[in-house]
Design brief:
69% helix; 0% strand; 40 helices; mainly alpha
Length: 719
């Protein structure tokens, strides 16, 4: 078995090299073989030659590799007369019997009023776990046929899983009174819902209230829902209802201890009600105890009890996260002890990164300098690479700043540990450690780009054959000039299995999309998002070419012109724009910030007055970049020419930054010069801390990749 996997992975590597060969020697049709028919079919469609397209798709559907054959069958399902389309959809569904195939086929059945076919195709789906959009299609088909199962199906779908956006859209699009009548008339196996229409109506309203965050309204229904489910068993008790009742109690009421005891009793220490019900009962019992300072240790016991009920690693991670957060509310000492006890049980390592960020802030504010080394020792080998890099660096930094005559060898060991991690694109602490080690430009090249002996990433949820076909499909889009298909299909594959498309393939696709952008369209951001998500996987070797795609010089002329006008380094402005907007010119934040440099309207208006610009459009890249560059330079002048403080002011405001400086000097026992890297760690806003790290590391990478500067020098310059 292992040897076959290795052979498949070798084939994947060989294929990537093969397709990179000069197309002057081998034609595309010959190199892609039967798969070329799919791409030629798409080109024929673009040329309005439907007859030729069908011939190409038919050939690819019979002889193409897995995903190309499948995509070709889907194209055929959209061509021909109605009877042909229906027949082809039925054949497609028979060959590819999964939720994606069912969703596609059923959607076409409904579009052609084939209600019975749509119902038959979805008869075996589980409304508790299937794709929500597929569930809606089944309900639509049942409703059109006036099928008696419609009422019960609606009720099941609304009560056997988490309420989602799809549920709420369904709820809004159907008249509320009509939908509630449907729910209350439901019948079938299980409870006879028609006998308690008011009860079922209450459950529906309760779940919708929780989904919308109307917790006070939900709590007013809580006692009745509890009575119906637990006390009288008139409505089946599910883990979803337990979780919703828990949310109502946590966020909609202050009788925390009373409700915490109730949920603890509900779990009862046995599996009678089902492990998942007991798990969520213990989780919410712990959350309710955790709201009261006098019951925090009781909360810890409830979260530990939840671990015994956890059915998978995701639930274990969730319970451990709550446990550690509860420890943190007691004391940092308790949190360190919790890590020493449970760090070896972490599953998804980056799930805990936000906890470690909060912990470091509290360690600094409490002056717990010796705790950093204890934390590192507890998590070494268990936390994410980004967190290990951070705590190795901070351990050395606090030893250096707070201990007289710190052991030079010990300092070097921790700095080296921080520098040698592979944290994906999150290179901030790796760069800071390299600066402290005094690494030369040549040493930096080896640290980042020298090939390492890493195990190849093996797809976890698909076969190697399917992974090979997916990569060939995406590369074919690029080679045949069909870039408009790349991003959506890559995202589809990434959502199935993050390891399905290797970084070398994504690198080629990202470069192709970047070339297609040609100015201002959304291919810039799609190129960047693809490479950024793929490069952050554990165990991925990032090449220099991939780093250049991760840090592109989009809007080069605009940024260079504005940087020169306001005497700002262009690599810093590239970093700022990348961090603020990911190079999306039309992006707008929830707070109202607009465009590439994410300016608020009031800030932009002030910039316009100072620059004597009467009419402006923040969605225009040149204007937005000019205003943002001016604003940054203005902040820098007002903050003693400090690059890092100007960045903080850009993000949070200059008044707030000055207040932070005063409080940080107290926390760090600093009466003189405040070390910028330590100051960043004490900022009370996680968003601003992360913003500073991202801009500094991006600026260093830009200066290194494009200006040939040692990134360590840029870090020193900014920090």
């Amino acid at each position: 078995m292992l040897s076959s996997v290795k052979k498949g992975l070798f084939a994947l590597a060989f294929f990537s090299l093969f397709t990179a060969c000069s197309q002057e020697k081998i034609s595309l049709n010959k190199s892609y073989g039967a798969d070329a028919s799919y791409f030629n079919g798409l080109l024929a469609l673009g040329g309005k030659d439907s007859e030729a397209a069908q011939k190409y798709f038919f050939r690819a559907s019979k002889k193409g590799s897995y995903w190309i054959a499948r995509k070709s069958m889907k194209q055929l399902c959209l061509m021909g007369d109605v009877q042909q389309r229906i027949k082809r959809c039925a054949e497609y569904l028979k060959k590819y019997d999964d939720d994606e195939a069912r969703y596609f086929a059923v959607r076409e059945f409904l579009a052609n009023k084939e209600w019975a076919r749509a119902i038959e195709a979805t008869d075996n789906i589980d409304l508790a776990v299937c794709d929500n959009n597929l569930a809606v299609l089944r309900l639509q088909a049942l409703n059109k046929k006036k099928d008696s199962r419609f009422d019960k199906s609606v009720y099941d779908w609304f009560t056997l899983r988490r309420i989602s956006d799809v549920h709420y859209e369904f709820y809004k699009q159907n008249a509320r009174d009509e939908l509630e009548d449907v729910i209350t008339d439901a019948n079938g196996s299980g409870p006879q819902i028609s006998d308690f229409s008011v009860d079922a109506d209450l459950v529906l309203q309760f779940r919708i209230a929780i989904y919308r965050g109307n917790y006070n309204a939900a709590y007013e229904m809580y006692e009745q829902v509890r009575s119906l489910t637990v006390d009288r068993n008139r409505i089946p008790l599910t883990w979803q209802l337990v979780a919703d009742m828990g949310r109502a109690c946590v966020y909609g009421n202050n009788e925390d201890i009373k409700n915490a005891k109730y949920f603890g009793e509900l779990a009862g220490g046995d599996y009678k009600a089902g492990k998942k019900i007991n798990y969520y009962a213990m989780i919410y019992s712990g959350l309710l105890y955790n709201k009261n300072d006098n019951y925090r240790r009781r909360a810890l016991k409830q979260f530990e009890a939840a671990l015994d009920f956890a059915e998978d690693q995701n639930e274990r991670d969730q319970a451990l996260w709550y446990y550690l957060q509860s420890c943190l509310k007691i004391s940092t000492e308790e949190a360190v002890a919790g890590l020493e006890k449970y760090a070896g049980s972490f599953g998804q390592k980056d799930y805990f990164d936000d906890f470690f960020d909060s912990l470091s802030v509290l360690l600094f504010s409490g002056g717990k300098w010796d705790a950093f080394e204890k934390v590192f020792d507890a998590i070494n080998g268990h936390a994410s690479q980004a967190t290990l890099s951070k705590y190795a660096y901070l351990t050395a930094r606090v030893l250096q700043s707070q201990t007289k005559g710190a052991d030079a060898k010990k300092l070097e060991r921790f700095y080296r540990l921080a520098a040698d991690t592979e944290p994906g694109t999150y290179v901030y602490y790796k760069l800071l450690a390299a600066k402290e080690l005094g690494c030369s430009a040549g040493e930096m090249d080896k640290m980042f780009f020298e090939p390492k002996k890493l195990e190849p990433l093996v797809p976890e949820k698909v076969s190697v054959e399917q992974a090979l076909s997916a990569r060939k499909l995406l590369l074919g889009y690029a080679d045949f000039g069909l870039g408009e298909y790349i991003y959506d299909d890559w995202k589809f594959f990434f959502d199935i299995d993050k390891k399905m498309i290797d970084l070398a393939t994504v690198e080629r696709l990202s470069a192709f999309l970047r070339r297609m952008a040609g100015g201002q369209n959304d291919y810039y951001s799609k190129s960047l998002r693809m490479i950024a998500r793929s490069a952050n996987l554990d165990g991925v070797q990032i090449s220099r070419a991939a780093f250049e795609l991760l840090y592109p010089q989009n809007f080069l002329d605009c940024i260079r012109a504005s940087a020169k006008e306001f005497e700002v380094d262009d690599y810093l402005m590239f970093a700022l724009v990348r961090t603020e907007s990911f190079f999306e010119p039309a992006i707008q934040s929830h707070a109202g910030a607009v465009g590439l440099t994410q300016l608020m309207e009031a800030t932009a208006s002030d910039c316009a007055k100072r620059l004597k610009v009467e009419n402006y459009n923040l969605l225009d890249p040149a204007t937005n970049i000019r205003f943002g560059t001016y604003y940054y330079s203005h902040m820098k002048k007002r903050l003693d020419d400090s690059g890092i403080l100007a960045l903080f002011a850009y993000n949070a405001g200059i008044t707030v930054v000055r207040r932070w400086i005063r409080s940080s000097k107290i926390e760090l026992n600093s009466q003189g010069q405040l070390w910028s890297d330590m100051f960043l760690e004490t900022l009370p806003f996680a968003e601003t801390r992360d913003y500073g790290r991202r801009v500094v590391s991006a600026a260093a990478m830009y200066a290194w990749l494009y200006d040939g500067k040692n990134p360590c020098d840029i870090v020193s310059e900014l920090m």
